[in-house]
Amino acid sequence: MGENRASEDGDRRIGRRALIVGGAAAAAGTAVLARDELARLWWRVPGVEKPREQGAVDYAGARWVAASDANWRRADRPDDFGVDMVIVHVTQGSFDSAVKAFQDPGHRASTHYIVGQDGRVTQMIRELDVAYHAGNRDYNERSVGIEHEGFVDRPEDFTDEMYEASARLTARICARYGIPVDREHIIGHVEVPGTDHTDPGPHWDWDRYLKLVRRARTSRTKAGAPPGA
């Protein structure tokens, strides 16, 4: 009987010790998790400096030319802001004049990409970051903006090379973020609430453009490209 009680007392002491040790380990684990979570949340705060590779592009066919820091806001999309939209713009000028404008800190606007009439693509802001392009903060935070060289009242400015290059770019963006290829998620600047812009204008062929985007996305899928690649 005494041996049993001693054994029971010993078991209880061992049990209490195990609880203390286990509790300490759990608390340490929780502290590590909390620290990791705080670090993750910190890096997701808009405006926090994050490690970037200079000159890196998100689209393999693009050439990097940096926009002025005044024309965009650093972020960590899609972690801090989900991306669910592509917004189509027209430059109302030449390719070079658009690049120059987006490099000007006084311009206070820029898109992520510019597509030329010859099909060349320049990236000026990382997709991670928020470009000032839509004139609406919510739409800026949730979209990728693409400028197209030309004027809204000149249908001849929208060349085959431009449509095809832009469609390939948009297909990649849609694949990367799981954006549906439809007119609810691929829109014109004119459709952004509160904007006074009219681009891409009445001569932009939406039916043709969406068909090209779907074809580009399907062809990459059939070729075995990973989602978002």
From TrEMBL:
GO biological process assignments: cell wall organization; peptidoglycan catabolic process; peptidoglycan turnover
Gene3D superfamilies in UniProt: Peptidoglycan recognition protein-like
Cross-referenced Pfam families: Amidase_2
EC number, as in UniProt: 3.5.1.28
Highest taxon of source: Bacteria
Keywords from the named record: Cell wall biogenesis/degradation, Hydrolase
Catalysed conversion reaction: Hydrolyzes the link between N-acetylmuramoyl residues and L-amino acid residues in certain cell-wall glycopeptides
CDD domains: PGRP (cd06583)
Top EC class, one word: hydrolase
Domain N-acetylmuramoyl-L-alanine amidase: residue ranges: 72-201
Keyword Membrane part of the UniProt annotation: no
GO molecular function (one): N-acetylmuramoyl-L-alanine amidase activity
Protein name: N-acetylmuramoyl-L-alanine amidase
Taxonomic classification: Bacteria, Bacillati, Actinomycetota, Actinomycetes, Kitasatosporales
